[in-house]
Amino acid sequence: MSIQDRINRRLENREGIGFYPSTSEEIKYQEAVKRVKRIKGFYTHALVYLVINIMIIIVNIQNLKEGESYFQWHNFFTAIFWGIGLIAHGLSVFLPTFILGENWEEKKIKELMEKERNEKWE
C-alpha cells in the first residue's frame, strides 16, 4: 500500500476514526501523523502567543503616560506567564523523545499489555 493510498484511506475514514492499522508500516505512519499534529499545535500556539503579545505591547505603549517607563511588571505579566505555558507545551512536544527515547511509548504499551495479560490468567 503506497503512502498516497494510506492518505486517501485516512481521509475516507474522517481523520483516522475507525482506521485500525494492520501492519507495522501503517502503525508508524499513524504515529507520524499524531506527531505532526502535536508539532503543528505547538507552532500554532507559538504564533498566537506572538500575535497577541505584540498587540498587548502596542496597546500598552499607546496607554503610557508622558515620561512613564514601559518596563513595569504589569506590562510583562501576560507574556511571562503565558510564555511559561508555551515552554511547557514545547517541552511536551519535543522533549519526550529526547529524554525517554524514540520507542518509549511503544515499550510502555507492550509492558502494560503484558502485565494486564498476566493478571487476567492468575
Report on this model:
With 122 residues, the chain is an all-alpha fold. Helix content is 77%, strand content 0%. It is built from four helices and no strands. It starts with a helix and ends with a helix. The mean pLDDT is 81.
Question: Key terms for this structure?
Answer:
122 residues, single chain, 4 helices, mainly alpha, elongated
Q: DSSP strand (E) fraction?
A: under 5%
Main sheet? none
Mean pLDDT: 81
Please tally the β strands and state the result.
Answer: 0
Overview in brief:
This protein is 77% helix and 0% strand. With 122 residues, it is an all-alpha fold.
Layout of helices and strands, plus pairs?
Blueprint: H1 3-12, H2 24-62, H3 73-100, H4 104-120
Helix pairs in contact: 2-3
